[in-house]
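Consider the following input, taken from an annotated entry for Aldo/keto reductase (Streptomyces angustmyceticus).
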Amino acid sequence: MGSDKIETVELGTGGPRVGVQGLGCMGMSFAYGPTDADEARATLERARELGVTLFDTADMYGRGENEKFIAPFVRAHRDEVVLATKFAISPDPDHPDDPFKRVIRNDRAYIRQAVEGSLTRLGVDEIDLYYMHRRDVNVPIEESVGAMAELVAEGKVKHLGLSEVTAAELRAAHAVHPIAALQSEWSLFSRDIEDGVVQAAAELGVGLVPYSPLGRGFLTGAFVSADKELTQDDFRRTQPRFTGDNATANAALLEPVRTIAEAHGATPGQIALAWVQQQAAVHGAAVVPIPGTRKRSRVEENTSATRIRLSEQDLVLLEPIAGQVAGARYADMTHTSQGRS
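Applying the prediction step yields:
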């Protein structure tokens, strides 16, 4: 089994050493419809066996339930797991029963409240990587990162991360306290962070953690229609790329991915992941994608993609895809780096 293990990389200058692919845990208990809890737990274990060490959750995934779900696994393998969680997205007090209505908070009081909640739910004394999940533009980022730095000094957090910030915001934050990792959406379908953000991260020695590297499942080639394939509580129904004519148009963009997959004896999803992994060499930065899955077979498939090397010809064929995608990443892009750039 040892030969199946993925390689490791330092996530940012002075950051934790992790497997070159992590695991997004959100879907194990939140956002993508019904789950099989036993299979999800087995997936966590299989990922660990394959060398995955970065396990990613957030306090807003199921309003803390996702942190509780992975907590026994984290505690059982504490020395092997690099635990990442996030704060900033809070239930909207005006719509407390709607899981998709939320507010963003980056103020010091909220940060301190949030970290204590996460520590309690996870049952740990220290969080390895603590992210600001989204940016509240009403609070200077220097103040927010200053409050996060206090948590490092107090031993509650080891490393700091940011999610969906602009290049300028990353530079301002890094000047207050070293940022180990920047998490943003990055895939063959979503490449807006290459317009300055990736370059800033590489310059500052900040690791990149692409979420949704499979386009929330679109790049596996299995998705065709929201009406046919997504349950009513699947949040992808709120995303423009998955609805109506956009979904049909985007499904047609996968032909070169399928062609390359066939040539490599791989799946379309593996090619999409290999492309993201290969961006580390392209941009001179650590890149550790966190594809989410709740099935052992998928985590085996995903980690195998770390050993695929795409040719220059492959990269040329894949290059135009992002520019042809129909629909934005989110219905409201206000809280993304692209929306503020």
